[in-house]
Amino acid sequence: MPLQRELVRGYERLATVQGRPGNANLGDREGAxxxxxxxxxxxxxxxxxxxxxxxxxxxxxxxxxxxxxLDDDRASKQKRITEGLTLLDGLDPSAQQRRxxxxxxxxxxxxxxxxxxxxxxxxxxxAKYAEVVGLFKQLFDTSDKGDRAENSRNLxxxxxxxxxxxxxxxxxxxxxxxxxxxxxxxxxRVMQEPANTTxxxxxxxxxxxxxxxxxxxxxxDDGLRHYQQSLELREGVLKADPVNDQAQDAVARAxxxxxWTWQQRGDRTRALEAGLNGxxxxxxxxxxxxxxxxxxxxxxxxxxTVYNIRxxxxxxxxxxxxxxxxxxxxxxxxxxxxxxxxxxxRAGETPAGPDRASVARELEKxxxxxxxxxxxx
Length: 377
Prior knowledge:
The chain has 377 residues and is an all-alpha fold. It has helices spanning 2-19, 29-48, 54-69, 74-89, 93-96, 99-118, 122-141, 148-168, 172-192, 197-215, 220-240, 245-264, 268-288, 293-316, 320-346, 356-374. Helix 4 packs antiparallel against helix 6 (99-118), helix 10 runs parallel beside helix 12 and helix 13 (268-288) packs antiparallel against helix 14.
Protein backbone atom coordinates (compact mmCIF):
# COMPACT_ATOMS: atom_id res chain seq x y z
CA MET A 1 0.00 0.00 0.00
CA PRO A 2 2.74 2.57 0.79
CA LEU A 3 4.23 1.89 -2.67
CA GLN A 4 0.83 2.43 -4.32
CA ARG A 5 0.40 5.75 -2.53
CA GLU A 6 3.87 6.88 -3.60
CA LEU A 7 3.09 5.93 -7.21
CA VAL A 8 -0.10 8.00 -7.05
CA ARG A 9 1.80 11.00 -5.70
CA GLY A 10 4.36 10.58 -8.47
CA TYR A 11 1.69 10.77 -11.18
CA GLU A 12 0.17 13.80 -9.44
CA ARG A 13 3.51 15.62 -9.39
CA LEU A 14 4.12 14.72 -13.04
CA ALA A 15 0.71 16.14 -14.02
CA THR A 16 1.58 19.41 -12.28
CA VAL A 17 4.74 19.79 -14.36
CA GLN A 18 2.98 18.75 -17.56
CA GLY A 19 -0.01 21.06 -17.52
CA ARG A 20 -2.06 21.54 -14.37
CA PRO A 21 -3.69 25.00 -14.36
CA GLY A 22 -2.48 27.58 -11.87
CA ASN A 23 1.08 26.25 -11.77
CA ALA A 24 4.26 26.63 -13.78
CA ASN A 25 3.92 23.94 -16.43
CA LEU A 26 4.84 22.88 -19.96
CA GLY A 27 1.36 23.36 -21.44
CA ASP A 28 0.84 19.63 -22.07
CA ARG A 29 -2.78 19.33 -20.95
CA GLU A 30 -3.23 15.94 -22.61
CA GLY A 31 -0.22 14.56 -20.78
CA ALA A 32 -1.50 16.02 -17.51
CA UNK A 33 -4.90 14.39 -18.06
CA UNK A 34 -3.28 11.01 -18.70
CA UNK A 35 -1.10 11.27 -15.59
CA UNK A 36 -4.00 12.33 -13.38
CA UNK A 37 -6.15 9.50 -14.75
CA UNK A 38 -3.46 7.08 -13.58
CA UNK A 39 -3.32 8.79 -10.19
CA UNK A 40 -7.12 8.67 -9.86
CA UNK A 41 -7.26 5.00 -10.83
CA UNK A 42 -4.58 4.12 -8.30
CA UNK A 43 -6.22 6.05 -5.47
CA UNK A 44 -9.66 4.65 -6.30
CA UNK A 45 -8.23 1.15 -5.79
CA UNK A 46 -6.81 2.20 -2.43
CA UNK A 47 -10.16 3.63 -1.32
CA UNK A 48 -12.09 0.57 -2.51
CA UNK A 49 -9.82 -1.92 -0.76
CA UNK A 50 -9.88 -1.67 3.05
CA UNK A 51 -8.37 -0.39 5.17
CA UNK A 52 -8.80 2.96 3.38
CA UNK A 53 -7.79 5.88 5.55
CA UNK A 54 -9.36 9.32 5.87
CA UNK A 55 -6.27 10.71 4.17
CA UNK A 56 -6.84 8.37 1.22
CA UNK A 57 -10.42 9.60 0.79
CA UNK A 58 -9.39 13.24 1.00
CA UNK A 59 -6.55 12.60 -1.45
CA UNK A 60 -8.99 11.04 -3.93
CA UNK A 61 -11.33 14.03 -3.59
CA UNK A 62 -8.35 16.29 -4.29
CA UNK A 63 -7.48 14.27 -7.41
CA UNK A 64 -11.08 14.46 -8.63
CA UNK A 65 -10.83 18.24 -8.30
CA UNK A 66 -7.54 18.41 -10.17
CA UNK A 67 -8.89 16.23 -12.96
CA UNK A 68 -12.06 18.35 -13.18
CA UNK A 69 -9.90 21.42 -13.78
CA LEU A 70 -8.61 19.79 -16.98
CA ASP A 71 -12.00 18.58 -18.24
CA ASP A 72 -13.30 20.34 -21.34
CA ASP A 73 -16.54 18.38 -21.19
CA ARG A 74 -18.95 19.99 -18.75
CA ALA A 75 -20.72 16.75 -17.79
CA SER A 76 -17.42 15.06 -16.92
CA LYS A 77 -16.29 18.08 -14.93
CA GLN A 78 -19.56 18.17 -12.96
CA LYS A 79 -19.39 14.41 -12.30
CA ARG A 80 -15.88 14.63 -10.83
CA ILE A 81 -16.80 17.60 -8.65
CA THR A 82 -19.84 15.73 -7.33
CA GLU A 83 -17.76 12.62 -6.64
CA GLY A 84 -15.24 14.70 -4.71
CA LEU A 85 -17.86 16.40 -2.57
CA THR A 86 -19.61 13.07 -1.93
CA LEU A 87 -16.35 11.62 -0.61
CA LEU A 88 -15.88 14.55 1.76
CA ASP A 89 -19.52 14.47 2.90
CA GLY A 90 -19.05 10.80 3.78
CA LEU A 91 -16.37 11.58 6.36
CA ASP A 92 -17.31 11.90 10.00
CA PRO A 93 -17.74 15.51 11.23
CA SER A 94 -14.36 15.70 12.92
CA ALA A 95 -12.59 14.45 9.79
CA GLN A 96 -14.43 17.03 7.68
CA GLN A 97 -12.86 19.74 9.83
CA ARG A 98 -9.34 18.61 9.06
CA ARG A 99 -7.44 21.36 7.30
CA UNK A 100 -6.75 19.39 4.12
CA UNK A 101 -10.38 18.29 3.87
CA UNK A 102 -11.52 21.91 4.23
CA UNK A 103 -9.05 23.06 1.58
CA UNK A 104 -10.19 20.38 -0.88
CA UNK A 105 -13.84 21.26 -0.23
CA UNK A 106 -13.10 24.92 -0.93
CA UNK A 107 -11.35 23.98 -4.18
CA UNK A 108 -14.30 21.86 -5.30
CA UNK A 109 -16.73 24.67 -4.47
CA UNK A 110 -14.48 26.99 -6.47
CA UNK A 111 -15.00 24.78 -9.52
CA UNK A 112 -18.77 24.89 -8.99
CA UNK A 113 -18.59 28.70 -8.84
CA UNK A 114 -16.60 28.73 -12.08
CA UNK A 115 -19.26 26.61 -13.78
CA UNK A 116 -21.98 28.98 -12.58
CA UNK A 117 -20.00 31.93 -13.95
CA UNK A 118 -19.57 30.19 -17.32
CA UNK A 119 -23.37 29.74 -17.37
CA UNK A 120 -23.68 33.51 -16.73
CA UNK A 121 -25.33 32.81 -13.38
CA UNK A 122 -23.26 35.56 -11.83
CA UNK A 123 -25.41 35.88 -8.72
CA UNK A 124 -24.99 32.16 -8.06
CA UNK A 125 -21.25 32.38 -8.73
CA UNK A 126 -20.98 35.35 -6.37
CA ALA A 127 -22.64 33.39 -3.53
CA LYS A 128 -20.46 30.33 -4.11
CA TYR A 129 -17.23 32.36 -4.35
CA ALA A 130 -18.15 34.06 -1.05
CA GLU A 131 -18.38 30.60 0.51
CA VAL A 132 -14.99 29.70 -0.95
CA VAL A 133 -13.40 32.89 0.41
CA GLY A 134 -14.85 32.15 3.84
CA LEU A 135 -13.26 28.71 3.95
CA PHE A 136 -9.89 29.89 2.66
CA LYS A 137 -9.95 32.83 5.10
CA GLN A 138 -10.53 30.43 7.98
CA LEU A 139 -7.57 28.33 6.87
CA PHE A 140 -5.35 31.37 6.36
CA ASP A 141 -6.16 32.89 9.74
CA THR A 142 -5.19 29.65 11.50
CA SER A 143 -2.09 28.95 9.39
CA ASP A 144 1.22 27.98 10.83
CA LYS A 145 4.50 28.90 9.19
CA GLY A 146 4.55 25.74 7.08
CA ASP A 147 1.28 26.28 5.21
CA ARG A 148 0.83 30.04 5.45
CA ALA A 149 2.09 30.79 1.93
CA GLU A 150 -0.15 28.17 0.30
CA ASN A 151 -3.19 29.37 2.25
CA SER A 152 -2.35 32.96 1.36
CA ARG A 153 -2.28 32.03 -2.31
CA ASN A 154 -5.58 30.16 -2.13
CA LEU A 155 -7.25 33.07 -0.36
CA UNK A 156 -5.88 35.53 -2.91
CA UNK A 157 -7.25 33.45 -5.80
CA UNK A 158 -10.58 33.38 -3.98
CA UNK A 159 -10.58 37.18 -3.61
CA UNK A 160 -9.79 37.68 -7.31
CA UNK A 161 -12.54 35.33 -8.44
CA UNK A 162 -15.06 36.74 -5.97
CA UNK A 163 -14.12 40.20 -7.22
CA UNK A 164 -14.82 39.19 -10.81
CA UNK A 165 -18.28 37.93 -9.82
CA UNK A 166 -18.98 41.15 -7.92
CA UNK A 167 -17.94 43.18 -10.95
CA UNK A 168 -20.32 41.22 -13.18
CA UNK A 169 -23.29 41.84 -10.88
CA UNK A 170 -22.49 45.56 -10.86
CA UNK A 171 -20.78 45.89 -7.47
CA UNK A 172 -17.68 47.60 -8.83
CA UNK A 173 -16.54 49.05 -5.50
CA UNK A 174 -16.80 45.60 -3.92
CA UNK A 175 -14.82 44.10 -6.79
CA UNK A 176 -11.99 46.60 -6.40
CA UNK A 177 -11.91 45.90 -2.66
CA UNK A 178 -11.47 42.17 -3.36
CA UNK A 179 -8.75 42.84 -5.94
CA UNK A 180 -6.90 45.05 -3.45
CA UNK A 181 -7.10 42.32 -0.80
CA UNK A 182 -5.66 39.83 -3.30
CA UNK A 183 -2.88 42.25 -4.30
CA UNK A 184 -1.87 42.74 -0.65
CA UNK A 185 -1.61 38.99 -0.04
CA UNK A 186 0.35 38.40 -3.26
CA UNK A 187 2.72 41.30 -2.62
CA UNK A 188 3.43 40.06 0.89
CA ARG A 189 4.47 36.64 -0.47
CA VAL A 190 6.74 38.27 -3.07
CA MET A 191 8.37 40.33 -0.34
CA GLN A 192 8.95 37.18 1.71
CA GLU A 193 10.31 35.20 -1.28
CA PRO A 194 11.40 37.63 -4.03
CA ALA A 195 12.75 34.87 -6.30
CA ASN A 196 9.57 32.77 -6.25
CA THR A 197 8.20 33.01 -9.81
CA THR A 198 4.80 31.59 -8.85
CA UNK A 199 4.31 34.40 -6.35
CA UNK A 200 5.45 36.92 -8.97
CA UNK A 201 2.87 35.65 -11.46
CA UNK A 202 0.18 35.72 -8.79
CA UNK A 203 0.97 39.37 -8.06
CA UNK A 204 0.87 40.16 -11.77
CA UNK A 205 -2.65 38.70 -11.99
CA UNK A 206 -3.85 40.78 -9.04
CA UNK A 207 -2.40 43.92 -10.58
CA UNK A 208 -4.09 43.10 -13.90
CA UNK A 209 -7.43 42.60 -12.13
CA UNK A 210 -7.03 45.98 -10.45
CA UNK A 211 -6.07 47.57 -13.77
CA UNK A 212 -9.12 46.08 -15.48
CA UNK A 213 -11.40 47.69 -12.92
CA UNK A 214 -9.53 50.99 -12.85
CA UNK A 215 -9.56 51.47 -16.62
CA UNK A 216 -13.31 50.91 -16.66
CA UNK A 217 -13.88 53.21 -13.70
CA UNK A 218 -12.37 56.33 -15.21
CA UNK A 219 -8.93 55.75 -13.71
CA UNK A 220 -7.02 54.82 -16.84
CA ASP A 221 -3.74 56.33 -15.62
CA ASP A 222 -3.79 53.98 -12.61
CA GLY A 223 -4.90 51.14 -14.85
CA LEU A 224 -2.05 51.66 -17.31
CA ARG A 225 0.47 51.79 -14.47
CA HIS A 226 -0.79 48.53 -13.01
CA TYR A 227 -0.99 46.85 -16.42
CA GLN A 228 2.62 47.86 -17.08
CA GLN A 229 3.75 46.56 -13.68
CA SER A 230 1.91 43.32 -14.41
CA LEU A 231 3.69 42.93 -17.75
CA GLU A 232 7.09 43.59 -16.18
CA LEU A 233 6.52 40.89 -13.57
CA ARG A 234 5.46 38.37 -16.21
CA GLU A 235 8.41 39.15 -18.44
CA GLY A 236 10.70 38.67 -15.45
CA VAL A 237 9.21 35.24 -14.80
CA LEU A 238 9.62 34.30 -18.45
CA LYS A 239 13.24 35.41 -18.41
CA ALA A 240 13.87 33.10 -15.45
CA ASP A 241 11.80 30.24 -16.91
CA PRO A 242 11.46 30.58 -20.73
CA VAL A 243 9.40 27.37 -21.17
CA ASN A 244 6.83 28.31 -18.52
CA ASP A 245 3.59 27.96 -20.48
CA GLN A 246 1.54 29.90 -17.94
CA ALA A 247 3.99 32.81 -18.12
CA GLN A 248 4.02 32.81 -21.93
CA ASP A 249 0.24 33.04 -22.06
CA ALA A 250 0.26 35.70 -19.35
CA VAL A 251 2.76 37.87 -21.25
CA ALA A 252 0.61 37.67 -24.38
CA ARG A 253 -2.48 38.71 -22.39
CA ALA A 254 -0.59 41.58 -20.77
CA UNK A 255 0.27 43.05 -24.18
CA UNK A 256 -3.33 42.57 -25.32
CA UNK A 257 -4.64 44.36 -22.23
CA UNK A 258 -2.32 47.28 -22.90
CA UNK A 259 -3.39 47.37 -26.56
CA TRP A 260 -7.05 47.62 -25.62
CA THR A 261 -6.35 50.31 -23.02
CA TRP A 262 -4.25 52.46 -25.35
CA GLN A 263 -6.92 52.11 -28.02
CA GLN A 264 -9.59 53.33 -25.62
CA ARG A 265 -7.41 56.36 -24.89
CA GLY A 266 -7.12 57.09 -28.61
CA ASP A 267 -3.37 56.38 -28.83
CA ARG A 268 -3.40 54.10 -31.86
CA THR A 269 0.39 54.03 -32.24
CA ARG A 270 0.96 52.58 -28.78
CA ALA A 271 -2.13 50.39 -29.13
CA LEU A 272 -0.75 48.88 -32.34
CA GLU A 273 2.70 48.35 -30.82
CA ALA A 274 1.21 46.48 -27.85
CA GLY A 275 -1.21 44.58 -30.07
CA LEU A 276 1.58 43.39 -32.35
CA ASN A 277 3.65 42.28 -29.35
CA GLY A 278 0.71 40.20 -28.13
CA UNK A 279 0.08 38.86 -31.62
CA UNK A 280 3.70 37.75 -31.99
CA UNK A 281 3.34 35.65 -28.83
CA UNK A 282 0.05 34.16 -30.03
CA UNK A 283 1.60 33.23 -33.38
CA UNK A 284 4.57 31.55 -31.70
CA UNK A 285 2.39 29.63 -29.28
CA UNK A 286 0.03 28.45 -32.01
CA UNK A 287 2.96 27.42 -34.24
CA UNK A 288 4.24 25.25 -31.37
CA UNK A 289 0.83 23.48 -31.12
CA UNK A 290 -0.99 24.02 -34.45
CA UNK A 291 -3.78 21.60 -33.59
CA UNK A 292 -4.67 23.29 -30.29
CA UNK A 293 -8.16 24.79 -30.61
CA UNK A 294 -7.73 27.09 -27.61
CA UNK A 295 -4.50 28.54 -29.00
CA UNK A 296 -6.10 29.02 -32.41
CA UNK A 297 -8.96 30.96 -30.84
CA UNK A 298 -6.54 33.06 -28.79
CA UNK A 299 -4.71 33.89 -32.02
CA UNK A 300 -7.97 34.85 -33.75
CA UNK A 301 -8.89 37.12 -30.84
CA UNK A 302 -5.47 38.78 -30.91
CA UNK A 303 -5.71 39.27 -34.67
CA UNK A 304 -9.15 40.84 -34.23
CA THR A 305 -7.66 43.43 -31.88
CA VAL A 306 -4.84 44.21 -34.30
CA TYR A 307 -7.25 44.39 -37.23
CA ASN A 308 -9.51 46.88 -35.45
CA ILE A 309 -6.53 49.11 -34.67
CA ARG A 310 -5.14 48.82 -38.20
CA UNK A 311 -8.57 49.59 -39.66
CA UNK A 312 -8.82 52.77 -37.56
CA UNK A 313 -5.33 53.84 -38.65
CA UNK A 314 -6.02 53.08 -42.32
CA UNK A 315 -9.30 54.99 -42.21
CA UNK A 316 -7.40 58.08 -41.05
CA UNK A 317 -4.70 57.79 -43.72
CA UNK A 318 -5.03 60.29 -46.56
CA UNK A 319 -3.85 58.77 -49.81
CA UNK A 320 -0.81 57.51 -51.66
CA UNK A 321 1.64 54.78 -50.72
CA UNK A 322 1.17 55.20 -46.97
CA UNK A 323 -2.59 54.72 -47.22
CA UNK A 324 -2.18 51.67 -49.47
CA UNK A 325 0.24 50.11 -47.00
CA UNK A 326 -2.14 50.73 -44.10
CA UNK A 327 -5.06 49.11 -45.91
CA UNK A 328 -2.92 46.20 -47.07
CA UNK A 329 -1.85 45.55 -43.50
CA UNK A 330 -5.47 45.60 -42.34
CA UNK A 331 -6.40 43.28 -45.22
CA UNK A 332 -3.71 40.79 -44.19
CA UNK A 333 -5.01 40.70 -40.61
CA UNK A 334 -8.67 40.10 -41.53
CA UNK A 335 -7.62 37.61 -44.20
CA UNK A 336 -5.66 35.64 -41.62
CA UNK A 337 -8.73 35.60 -39.36
CA UNK A 338 -10.83 34.19 -42.22
CA UNK A 339 -8.24 31.48 -42.88
CA UNK A 340 -8.00 30.44 -39.23
CA UNK A 341 -11.79 30.34 -38.92
CA UNK A 342 -11.95 28.11 -42.01
CA UNK A 343 -9.35 25.81 -40.44
CA UNK A 344 -11.39 25.64 -37.22
CA UNK A 345 -14.58 24.83 -39.12
CA ARG A 346 -12.85 22.03 -41.01
CA ALA A 347 -11.70 20.61 -37.68
CA GLY A 348 -15.30 20.65 -36.41
CA GLU A 349 -14.60 23.48 -33.94
CA THR A 350 -16.44 26.71 -33.19
CA PRO A 351 -14.04 29.54 -33.98
CA ALA A 352 -13.60 32.70 -31.94
CA GLY A 353 -13.85 36.18 -33.35
CA PRO A 354 -16.48 37.91 -35.49
CA ASP A 355 -19.03 35.81 -37.36
CA ARG A 356 -18.28 34.87 -40.95
CA ALA A 357 -20.66 37.45 -42.42
CA SER A 358 -18.87 40.20 -40.49
CA VAL A 359 -15.48 38.94 -41.64
CA ALA A 360 -16.70 38.96 -45.25
CA ARG A 361 -17.91 42.56 -44.87
CA GLU A 362 -14.57 43.65 -43.43
CA LEU A 363 -12.74 41.99 -46.32
CA GLU A 364 -14.98 43.86 -48.74
CA LYS A 365 -14.23 47.17 -47.00
CA UNK A 366 -10.50 46.61 -47.28
CA UNK A 367 -10.74 45.51 -50.91
CA UNK A 368 -12.92 48.52 -51.77
CA UNK A 369 -10.46 50.92 -50.13
CA UNK A 370 -7.51 49.34 -51.94
CA UNK A 371 -9.38 49.43 -55.25
CA UNK A 372 -10.21 53.10 -54.78
CA UNK A 373 -6.58 53.91 -54.04
CA UNK A 374 -5.43 51.92 -57.07
CA UNK A 375 -7.61 54.07 -59.35
CA UNK A 376 -6.78 57.34 -57.65
CA UNK A 377 -4.93 59.88 -59.82
